[in-house]
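User: Teach me something about this protein's shape.
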Amino acid sequence: MNEKTNVKEELEALVNKNDKKAVVLMTYNTVEGFKPGIYGDGRLIVYSWDKKLRSEKCKEAAKDITDKFYKDFNLRRDGNLFEHIFVYAGMNAMDEAISAARMIGHDLKDYENLGKKVTMVGCDCDYNKKARIAHDSYSVSLIQCECGGDVTMGKIAKAILEGKDPKTIKSYGK
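Assistant: First, the predicted structure itself:
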């Protein structure tokens, strides 16, 4: 992301130029093959760390990633820039990731088209809790992945850049 331009302005220009909304991947881990930034002429934004974190740092990292996203965008105003958002929810910062997914889902809700715009990407760790929360939420869906989620998130990123509709992504893990 260009340091001299703010992320919102950069993405807004790319979305307007290409007439395609962005897909966001958020994780307190890494995304295999992708550093944080904007890819594919604004088609993909990755919010992640560029290194593996120790488990005690994951909660702080998940909060920092969410805060950065909300610093860059006001979803009530800027929600039209986004087609879909994937949020990794693993064991080390599960509550923070679930909270972020629910908050983003709420802020992106589209009353005219009740389609879900947020997908949690969750590993097996306490998967029933993640499934229950996704099931109870009108704005968040869930797909399963390996622990850490970096491989699955990398596959999702590649699929988005290859033109795959994010709403058709049901599984890349396990």
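Now, about its shape. DSSP finds six helices and six strands in the chain. The chain has one domain: 7-168. If you'd like, I can walk through any region in more detail.
User: That's plenty for now, thanks!
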